[in-house]
Design brief:
Mean pLDDT: 95
Strand content: 25-35%
Distance between the termini: 24 Å
Shape: globular
Largest sheet: 4 strands, mixed
Order of helices and strands: EEHHHEEEHEEEHEEEHEHEEHEHE
Oligomer: single chain
């Protein structure tokens, strides 16, 4: 029996290998939390012990769903936000691209990711440099050779131009999606704040913030859109991790979004994220950097 193909160029294939940063490594201790959380824009100070327990449970959930968890090591040069490992890099089938963070306090995170990739034997294709800005939460794979990238306060035109060059022939199309001002440059807002693919023809979205061309483009590609209710956007209702086609991981506390996903045939697993998600405004996609997914029945 032939194993299904493995790829990094999917946000919906079965996750087989994923990088996490444990809350105990990112937060260090209660003193470190107290020193940083306000300046980083957290809604409240995370509780250290409880955050550690949530990280343990989150990792166990992913392992139970078939993923090998690789832990990002502690690093004195990074802060609380290093918990959200997706943002520091982008991965494609040819290797990793190190980002250049739009949030100044996170500038050391891509280098830390690069050191881990070197240990794992994952090629680093290059890094976003100079005036270019790119964060991994702004990159969404719509199909194995079509990606969308958000242009906003965290990712700029120069960063996208460098990304396009580094991806080279890895993609057939890179769709640039202008992001709304929404709550301003200090807010945590990425493309994945308003869309999370659940299958190659299904996505959960916050429709009021989608541009008309992007929304229509998704429909033209055959996507059915599940709209997150207004009251659940700030509860991270739109931040959903597909661990396999129509199998999702979501933070607890968004019952209407969960019901809509289940009605669309999605099997939803939830986790307690009061400390590691809600207070830092980072859901399950933010907490994870998938390195390998298995896919079948690709639709380009």
């Amino acid at each position: 029996m032939v194993d299904p193909p493995s790829t990094c160029q999917s946000d919906v294939g079965h996750v087989t290998r994923v990088v996490l940063k444990h809350a105990r490594s990112a937060y260090v201790d209660a003193t470190s939390i107290a020193r940083q959380w306000r300046g980083l824009g957290y809604l409240q100070a995370p509780r250290f012990d409880e955050a550690g327990d949530e990280s343990d449970a989150f990792a166990a959930l992913l392992e139970g769903l078939g993923a090998e968890v690789i832990w990002m090591p502690p690093d004195d040069d990074v802060g609380l936000d290093s918990l959200y490992v997706r943002d520091a890099s982008v991965v494609c089938d040819r290797g990793a691209i190190l980002c250049n963070m739009g949030k100044h306090a996170r500038r050391a995170e891509p280098e830390a990711a690069g050191r881990l990739y070197a240990e794992l034997g994952i090629p680093v294709l290059g890094a976003i440099e100079g005036d270019g800005r790119l964060e991994g939460g702004d990159l969404v794979w719509l199909s194995p050779r079509v990606a969308a990238v958000g242009q906003g306060y965290r990712t700029n035109a120069e960063g996208i131009a460098q990304l396009r060059a580094l991806l080279a022939d890895a993609v057939d199309e890179l769709i640039v999606v202008p992001l709304p001002h929404w709550r301003g440059p200090g807010d945590v807002f990425h493309l994945m704040s308003m869309i999370s693919p659940l299958d190659e023809d299904l996505a959960v979205v916050y429709e009021p913030l989608l541009s008309v061309p992007f929304r229509q483009g998704l429909i033209d590609r055959g996507f059915t859109l599940i709209g997150v209710p207004d009251e659940e956007l700030d509860l991270l209702g739109c931040n959903v991790l597909a661990v396999a086609p129509r199998v999702a991981v979501a933070v607890e506390g968004c019952p209407r979004t969960r019901l809509l996903m289940e009605q669309a045939g999605v099997r939803v697993h939830t986790y307690a994220g009061r400390e590691i998600s809600a207070k830092g405004c980072g859901g399950p996609t933010c907490l994870t950097r998938p390195l390998a997914r298995t896919v079948t029945g690709r639709r380009d």
